[in-house]
Amino acid sequence: MSTAPQATPTIVLVGHGMVGQHFLEALAERGLTATHRVVVLCEEPRPAYDRVQLTSYFSGRSPEDLSVTDPRFIEEHGIELRVGDPAESVDREARAVTARSGLVVGYDVLVLATGSSPFVPPVPGRDAEGCFVYRTVEDLLAIEEYAKKATTGAVVGGGLLGLEAAGALDGLGLTSHIVEFAPRLMPVQVDEGGGAALLRTIEDRGLTVHTGVGTQEIVTGADGSVTGMRLSDGSELATDLVVFSAGVRPRDQLARDCGLTVGERGGIAVDEQCRTVADPRVFAIGECALAADGRVYGLVAPGYEQAQTAAAVIAADAAEGAGGAGLPAFTGADLSTKLKLLGVDVASFGDAHGTTDGCLDVVYSDSRAGLYKKLVVGGDGILLGGILVGDAEAYGTLRAFTGSVPPVPPESLVLPAGAGAPAQLGPSALPDGAVVCSCHNVTKGAVRGAVAEHGCTTVPEVKKCTKAGTGCGSCVKVLDRLVTAELEASGVEVDRGLCGCFAQSRGELYEIVRALRVTSHRDLLDRHGREDARGGDGCEVCKPTVGSIIASLAPVIGASGHVLDGEQAALQDTNDHFLANLQRNGSYSVVPRVPGGEIAPEKLIVLGEIARDFGLYTKITGGQRIDMFGARVEQLPVIWARLVDAGFESGHAYGKSLRTVKSCVGRTWCRYGVQDSVRMAIDLELRYRGLRSPHKLKSAVSGCARECAEARSKDFGVIATSHGWNLYVGGNGGATPRHADLLAQDLSDAELVRLVDRFLMFYIRTADRLERTSTWLERIPGGLDHVRDVVVHDSLGICDELEAQMRAHVSHYRDEWAETLDDPEKLARFVSFVNAPGTPDPVVGFVPERDQMKPDLPLLSIGMRPAQPEEAALERNARR
Amino acid sequence: MTLALETTDTGLKVRIRLADGTWFAVCDLSALLPGRGVAALLPDGRQAAVFTDRTGGLYAVDNRDPFTGAAVLSRGLTGTRAGRPFVASPLLKQRFDLETGRCLDDDAVRLRTYQVEAA
Ligand code: SRM
Ligand SMILES: Cc1cc2nc3c(=O)[nH]c(=O)nc-3n(C[C@H](O)[C@H](O)[C@H](O)COP(=O)(O)OP(=O)(O)OC[C@H]3O[C@@H](n4cnc5c(N)ncnc54)[C@H](O)[C@@H]3O)c2cc1C
Ligand code: SF4
Ligand code: FES
Question: How far apart are CA A701 and CA A699, in angstroms?
Fold first, then answer.
């Protein structure tokens, strides 16, 4: 080989999209970033992001959330990433690339990963204001902005991306149309039957579909912006906004300009090693490449495979100085896809259209229910491919079985649950070579290896180790089952037990308590506890957990509703036991409920008087209410008697239960508000007050998208729209902040409440101990989509039950403090000393600070242990 | 300060043995709930946390949490671990063996324990 232009050989990557980033990772894995200088020219204003999940921007993921580029990765590997600096020309003789900034970089190896650009049919008016494409974050930002002044939108193209774009327009509140030239939707992926099922469901969602017509002209108004479009059947469609989604074209201009070979219909021609046929120093990967099998792949998985191939070939070149036999090769890829389009599951895999000689179809179709499932089976019984519309649950398993004879008859795989006996094809039936994750080409064998050899014991660990499940995410369900099965098979005790006393998880205990109506911890322990824990007293983990489960289910299982009744009292953490929060010096805080943060002056005065009379330290909390600190245990009933008299109730600041529903001032006063957020916050707070849950629950309601109530940091957050309410779930402040995800949009009051009812009850039923909704949502298989299926689409058929449970909670709610004050037996516990009921605990002392008082703890601070705490304190008391 | 004991109950009294060897009655046995402690003020100003468990076993340890100095151990949750009774501090959750006073989470820490009986 000729001498290199620089001391360190240089690899230049043009294009930092998903495939480009994957290529960089493949280089790093092979150690090439250590031996080579790597320069990346990135056209977009941000490093590579997840284009596949682009649409999730509209359901609340920020551009940063979408990023697939870890800045630490770039830095650690010394990669020179030039964001916003595209390549403008390539001089293959001089082996140099010129970037827009004027930078000229010499290369030893050049890799083109320029992706593709949306195809805009050459119709008159296509450049008018209001015309968009759907490919980049910038496109989405522009559409979102323009949609603010639009009411109707139309998408040209009813393929995969077109439907996604139409879903986005619908989500932005536009009346949406889809115009497709072919006679059915998604002509590439699904057949006629599938198209019909899809059409039905999409029309049910209120979108209008025009198939078999082309777009002839974009009609514009006086100001030059879009007002409509003329269709090939002569009709005109009024619309304010048009999104072109009529396919993509490989971005091969750079390659053409420097004389590389391109295909007849575009695409940079490469061989099986992803090397351009014209120049061995230049590679092309991803959507810009015309692969050796004559195809341009528009999916991310084949692109990843090409990236791996190119990196392996470059590594082999670097090692040998020349390529030899046995080089990795990209010989074609599977076009399987699974998508959720407009809420409909659509999957196609293998030979979906049945082009293999002698193949037969097995079809189940119910267009009323929007279901269509087809399997293509070879004469020898081999599963060749299939199409699933409406229910793609079996996709992961079926795809993995493609190319082999499934162990059960094919018809049993497509029948819906309930019709005959649908076969439960577990992943254990899969052969080792079956590809479980097609995004990263991970086989079942590799997943098993991760468990058996690399010691992975959880799905997140396996994801990290194999990358499986980190692409489109469609394989995570199968992955989860596989990992569990593998762990169990390898004899690893998968201890999902709650604690040393129970082998069950919190969710399992919930089901036991509910089904068998167990109303005491002791019974549960003796009958269902671990062998050696039976007959014992349980522990500090299971007691409050079981206490909370029994409290959540009290109306359903016939247990007492009060947390201080009978055995329940002994299960509660000290905070619940004294219906107040224990402070570091042994005193308590008092937090009355202030629903929605709205409080009348009269009540404020009462709080002020009480705090003054008892010398309590007062502070406005982060939850829009007032906390009064420093009450001794024997003062709690007296303080609460006055509070209850003035119309206050327990704020449950001590419980794993609903805390606050914060509100902004909303439409009533705020010039921007579009709904009455205060009223809604109060309604929600009163509805869910006292609801015992696996962890605390917080909520907020904002009167408009400015979000002054910070609803998206809450377990369930509500943001007003001009049509109603958007419901977000799974938000969290605290140690691991997480923005809530959009669950449903434009809900009426009643719809909102019904959905929150279901969501909360489903969470209470299935979450682990001390698992906030945020972690729960991230943990449960299927994540947000699964939760939406369950609570919005009632996929488990349990919504009636969830709603009934919430109704029972609402109708059984009583204020815990009012009830306690009415019960002398419960009140008897509020003493410092059993043998000296009138005597306050002398250890609780206070000193002044900033006009109020604070605990007197001169000797102790948390985490540090004094030598002789007891003696020192005794001495201190003696001095008083 | 009076350490008056309610005398209406004719049943058994819980008594703690003090340093001088005398027995000091703190409450009626019926005042104790399994799994839930009470605090008693002792003549020398110290405090004891007194517990009973399902089997009727009685335990008394110093009421002060050595990690924070607050007199709160009587308000902790009790449990059984490997057949032995313990109480978890309600503040920072360290656990203490109720019979020996040993802290299960920190070998260097031990609570004073008292002999206790129902009579
Ligand atoms: C009083 C208050 C701070 C204040 O002065 O403003 C407070 C005080 C406490 N917080 Fe908080 N949090 C308070 C608002 C918040 C907020 C802000 C909010 O709610 O808008 C957050 C972040 C939002 C969130 O929860 O997602 C917050 C995140 C936490 C966390 C971390 C939770 C997490 O998931 O990471 C804890 C620890 C826990 O619960 O395990 C915590 C725990 C606590 C505890 C209960 C600690 C304890 O066990 O003793 C504190 C008890 C206070 C007491 O004795 O009364 N507090 N805490 C606020 C009471 C609000 C109210 O009116 O009820
Ligand atoms: C909305 C949407 C949904 C999708 N859904 C799926 C799906 O569910 N499953 C699936 O498999 N695929 C899906 N795809 C397709 C998938 O995103 C692409 O296959 C994948 O992104 C291709 O990666 P790439 O790196 O080849 O191209 P790209 O991601 O397009 O990256 C190419 C990058 O190169 C840059 N570039 C171009 N020219 C230059 C230059 N001269 N200098 C510097 N930089 C340049 C571009 O700006 C771009 O950032 C979807 C695509 C979209 C738009
Ligand atoms: S969220 Fe909107 S309505 Fe509420 S206070 Fe802020 S700007 Fe006003
Ligand atoms: S199949 Fe896409 S992440 Fe596994």
Answer: 7
Distance CA(A322)–CA(A742), nearest Å, equals: 53
Pairing of strands A383-389, A344-350: antiparallel
CA of A728 to the centre of ligand 3 (A): 17
A696-739 residue pLDDT tens: 999 999 999 999 999 999 999 999 999 999 999 999 998 778 99
Exposure of A870 by Cβ count < 10 A (0-12 exposed, 13-18 middle, 19+ buried)? middle
Per the CB < 8 A criterion, the answer to whether A506 and A768 are in contact is yes
CA atoms of A364 and A387, how far apart (whole Å): 10
**Residues in B touching A859 (Cβ below 8 Å):** 69
Tens digit of each residue's pLDDT (9 = 90 or more) over A499-533:
889 988 888 899 899 888 888 999 999 999 998 88
What is the spatial distance between Cα A175 and Cα A423, in angstroms, rounded to a whole number?
41
pTM higher than the cut 0.95: no
From the list B28, B92, B39, B31, the residue with the least C-alpha distance to B62 is: B39
On whether any CB of chain B is under 8 Å from the CB of A868, the answer is no
- B83/A537 Cβ within 8 A: no
User: ipTM for the complex?
Assistant: 0.67
**Are A13 and A115 a contacting pair, CB within 8 Å?**
no
Instruction: Find chain B residues with C-beta within 8 A of A874's C-beta.
Output: 45-46
- CA–CA distance, A755 with A747 (Å, rounded to integer): 9
**CA gap B60, B42 in Å, rounded:** 12
SS3 of residue A453 by DSSP: coil
Nearest-by-CA chain A residue for B32: A834
Is the CB of A114 inside a 6 Å radius of any atom of ligand 2? yes
Give backbone dihedrals phi and psi of A550, rounded to 5 degrees, phi first: -65, -40
Q: Do B39 and A833 touch (CB under 8 A)?
A: yes
Q: How far apart are CA A535 and CA A309, in angstroms?
A: 62
Look up residue A33 and give its amino acid: T
Residue A147 has φ and ψ, to the nearest 5°, of -65, -20
- C-alpha angle A471-A477-A478 in degrees, rounded to nearest 5: 95
For residue A18, give the ligand 2 atom closest to its CA: 25
Instruction: Tell which residue, A699, A814, A817, A675, has the closest CA to residue A757.
Output: A699
Picking from A537, A577, A860, the nearest residue to B85 by CB comes out as: A537
**Number of residues that make up chain A:** 880
Whole-angstrom distance, CA of residue A95 vs CA of residue A80: 18
